[in-house]
């Protein structure tokens, strides 16, 4: 009888041991929680929408990263940055921000003072210094042919919305993307208000936050010389040049862009 009671007690203890985590197991769980991957927040620029990040999103999600591709209003640097700032405030834990084109203007402002933003990735994007505008930066070096491809929409408040003429979109914006995909992007592009391109930037976050750059070798919107110059000025941790890439480098080379974002997230 006593032997049976001993075995019964041992059985109960083993069952409890299986249910209650040991100190080592609890420490392991805590370690896993501490190693939570940062959320990747992607900010599109002018003449595009959040779907322009689809290839990058797919690759980041496969690697286990939570991703948010923000719908950038494209109304003004200040207003767009305020919107992005609210999106960032809704996210718990560390964040890596990646912006394309004008999205670089927005993320540079929105990340300022946010301790959760661990790094900034500029993808064929503006990395402005205080007092600079997107228009000024795009014209700082020769090579941009964007102005000749634009159409305007008078929106009744003294400002104009700008779009790229659909028949010129492929060669201007996405020459290394299939014509079919470029035609779809031209039809679904979001216009930007002209005042957003002339608004001067405030203090940029890249002064305090590590930055990474993808530069597009055959960009007709932001000349590669301007992209390299901004990357050097910001002391970018890494600068990846994609030879032959159009302004739509995130669409045509999603692996390269995703790999740099992952590097920035480490």
TrEMBL record:
InterPro entries in the record: AB_hydrolase_1, AB_hydrolase_fold, Sec-Metab_Biosynth_Hydrolase
All residue ranges annotated as the AB hydrolase-1 domain in the record: 40-259
Transmembrane region(s): none
Region forming the signal peptide: 1-26
Alphabetized Pfam families for the sequence: Abhydrolase_6
GO-annotated molecular function: catalytic activity
Keyword terms of this UniProt record: Signal
Keyword tRNA processing annotated: no
Protein name as it appears in the record: Pimeloyl-ACP methyl ester carboxylesterase
Taxonomic lineage from the root: Bacteria, Bacillati, Actinomycetota, Actinomycetes, Pseudonocardiales
